[in-house]
Amino acid sequence: MPEQTVRPRPTLEAVAARAGVSRATASRVVNGGAGVRPALVEKVRRAVEELDYVPNHAARTLVTRRNGAVAVIIAEPEFRVFADPFFEQQVRGISRELTARDVQLVLLWAEGPGDHERIARYLGGGHVDGALAFSVHDDDPLPALIARTGVPAVLGGRPVGSENLGIPFVDCDNRGGARDAVRHLISLGRTHIAHITGPRDQTSATDRINGYRDVLVDADPLLLCEGDFTEESGARAMGELLDRRPEIDAVFVSNDTMAMGALRTLRERGVRVPQDVAVVGFDDMAAVVQAAEPPLTTVRQDIEGMGRIMVKLLMRLLDAPKEEVPASVITPTTLIRRASA
């Protein structure tokens, strides 16, 4: 059998020569550095493709002092994450932005107290350059644990007390979006507007409650019923509201998934939407609203875009001096009118 010839692995010097640039310029482009003219960046990238150059990860780690990996921590049970399209969209945005930067995503679950110390040990062990965490509840020690490890981090959603930890966050204008939803229902002539809330230990839910109350200052407390962002909880809450206040003619639901449950209950009870009860959700998740009958009026937040912003904010944090913390980001929301209200 003839011996196979092993081609030598292309070097960074070869990439620089092919691109007609210095080794330093080639290194900056390959390692994601700034300050290189776009035309030169394109030449280096073309040379990388032509030579099939693969960066030496171990060497790059020594030079950049980075691992090329980011932990994504989700503070929810695993079954909940895979069942809820909200998490799918946010992780997709994070994954796409990390992939574009040649950074590996490491997914970690924080389902209970037993997971927190394990995650803290992992982060403190120097395996990742930073962390992104979302769906954090009010009493969750996770942000403080992350802060103690010293790993740069960004939170998805505004957690209570995060400003004291020096951890920036990315969230949407939950309160403003809720105000828009309720004002729209009022503009339709609805006078008995209920609210199916999310879990009150999450700031997204409490911000939406506050937005509802900003508009309906004297709302009857019995017009509010708490859910947990699942479809079944929305169906249950809608039933309780109809039993308490049969005169309800509109309902603002704190997310689209619960709104689907509310629509099911209304249909089962023979209540017409929107003729008898108008329904507005929150999120505008395509996988949910496309299945709604009638099509769901909802408040849109850019869930995937927020995931991308989390990564961009983390990268700024990694490049900034330790004492500089980028400002948190609040993204706008938009009311999307369809047939349910």
Q: Characterize the main sheet.
A: 6 strands, parallel
Low-confidence stretches: 57-64
How are the strands of the biggest sheet laid out side by side?
2-1-3-4-5-11
Shape: elongated
Instruction: Report the radius of gyration as a whole number of Å.
Output: 25 Å
What does this structure look like?
The chain is an alpha/beta fold. It is 45% helix and 16% strand. The chain contains 14 helices and twelve strands. The protein has a six-stranded parallel beta sheet with strand order 2-1-3-4-5-11, with helices on both faces. Helix 2 packs across helix 3 and helix 11 crosses helix 12. The radius of gyration is 25 Å and the shape is elongated. About 2% of the residues have low confidence.
Q: How are the secondary structure elements laid out?
A:
Layout: H1 12-19, H2 23-30, H3 38-51, H4 57-64, E1 69-74, H5 78-83, H6 85-100, E2 104-109, H7 113-124, E3 130-134, H8 142-149, E4 153-156, E5 169-172, H9 174-187, E6 193-197, H10 203-215, E7 224-226, H11 231-244, E8 250-253, H12 256-268, E9 278-283, H13 286-289, E10 297-300, H14 303-319, E11 329-331, E12 334-336
Parallel strand pairs: 1-2, 1-3, 3-4, 4-5, 5-11, 6-7, 6-8, 8-9, 9-10
Antiparallel strand pairs: 10-12
Essential attributes:
six-stranded mixed sheet; 45% helix; alpha/beta; 341 residues; 16% strand; six-stranded parallel sheet
Q: Quick gist of this model?
A:
The protein is α/β, with parallel strands linked by helices and 341 residues long.
